[in-house]
Amino acid sequence: MLQGLTAAGVIGAAGCLGSDSGGGNGYAAADTTDAESLNFIQVSDQNTSDRLALTMDSAYTITSDTQLFPLWLDVEDTGDSQVYVATLRDNLQWGGDYGQMTAEDWVYLIQEVHQGTDNWALSEAAGNWAGVTVEQTGELEFQIELERPNADWPFEPVLWGSYCLPKGLLEPYVDEQDGEGLDQDDEIQELAYTGNLGAYTFERWERGSEFTAVKNDDYYMTELDAEDFPDYVSEEEIEAWQTAPNFEEYTWHTMSEESPRMTALEQGEIDQTNVPSTRVERFEGQSDVEIMEVPYSYLTILAYNQRMNGWEELRTREVRQALSMAIDKVEITENILRGYAETAHTFQPHWSEWYDESEVTQFGEGDSYDPAGARDLLEANLSSDYGYDGDTLVGPDGEQVTLTLVYSRGTEATETTAEFMGEELSALGINIEFESVSFDQLIPNYVQNSWQGTEDEQPWTGGPNNDGPRDNSASSEDWDLMYGINFNTYPRTPAAIDAFWTERAPTNYYGYVPDEDLASMFETVRTSTDQAEREATMAEIFGILSEDQPVNFVSMSDDIIGYRSRVDGPKEEFGQSWNDRTWAFDEA
């Protein structure tokens, strides 16, 4: 789930802060937070993936026209939507002494790491590969067999966007089941194994500041002939890939404060960054900056911590409903976000073909924004140890109930929204304490959790973000509410959202345990050949999620990105960055 999470307010920003300010051939991008780690096995955030993607292309990508575009490999359905064959290109070379990338590398990684015993490597992709059989069928070919047919599988985040590691690098750590050692390996953290696998080669990483990669003169794409590309690719597009990349250097800058980022874009010190909705007017009429509103699949949530280190009452559906009912989403989207967002009530954008509004229960908009009704609902469903003393909600100790709302710092809109939600919840007699942390600290300290019982008691793990049943797993820092993370809704293949909404889901860090058998319903969507049945089942799932309120589904926004006008390549269409390695500066 490398692209499952990203920071709210910085969605999709990709680019670099150029050492050749205002000219030259270095591309610069800036966002508010740094990579978490360069070990792709254990990470789940977009910020890290954006940096890794400079040095590694991944298995394949999906175009904005929903076509599968082979990068390292092509994958084909054998005809039954259950067995797929992956075929690697023959010109892929690892760095160091690891030689050619082969099918053996892929099968070894999948079997020994993603499917490893007790998820010893803390693989974020473990859930994706559960129940999947892989077999090497040739030096450059391996076969993937699913438990059940799934025609959407190539478009789900399993093999799509996946990275690999050389078997020779992995073997010592697999033998010792040493996940910590693997994470600390110098070749992992310095990306020394990437060879010709990406458009750029890692040069330096100054944590919290700058990640820089330089043009890879051995980039495998430059060696391809026209027949190595899919038929739908035009001659112009082929030539663009054969001459990529067009920048001598590509740098990601971490700029936690909003104003300096906007100034850097305005003055030409960076070529690309996300622009908060509150800052769009600043660039109107400026010929050197182009603002694009790109359709985006990420949804912003207020998470309710249902684990052992969260407020236990949040495990009650009606309590979560009451909190959601007390927060005015229209005020957030129209005023705080300046109309550049729309309210959300379940885990799918309104423009998705899978969205069925008739199944969705609303909280926080129109008549469903009802603070008085929220208090009544809360009072009726809290355990007997809680009650109101006048307008104050008090707990078993007779003191006012205090909840901790942690949010990611970096954008004014995120902070303002968090504070607004806190004020709304205060009207229910709850004291809200705020904690502001950087996104790269939010993930390891608040999102990731670990098993608190004895090792022989742990019945299962979904990975570092869901390390076992909620009664015995918790993050290192306590929290009750969390704002500032966006979730990918996967509108092309919505069954992929089971990564968030089943008990053992790899991204279920908030400890949601659905009453309904959502896992079976997701399986129906994946395996059914009846499109009407698939649509009806997804509509039912979205309805259950809207009523259960495992999180408050707050809003969906377009991705507002500012580019220097000299950048040639970006488009205002969903999935527009699939070919960003071919982007260039306009010579005019």
Automatic annotation (TrEMBL):
A Gene Ontology biological process term: peptide transport
Keywords: Signal, Transport
Region (Disordered): 452-475
Protein name, entry field: Peptide ABC transporter substrate-binding protein
Domain Solute-binding protein family: 77-503
A family per Pfam: SBP_bac_5
Superkingdom of the organism of origin: Archaea
One cellular component term from this protein's GO annotations in UniProt: periplasmic space
Organism whose genome encodes this protein: Natrialba aegyptia DSM 13077
InterPro entries: Peptide/Ni-bd, SBP_5, SBP_5_dom
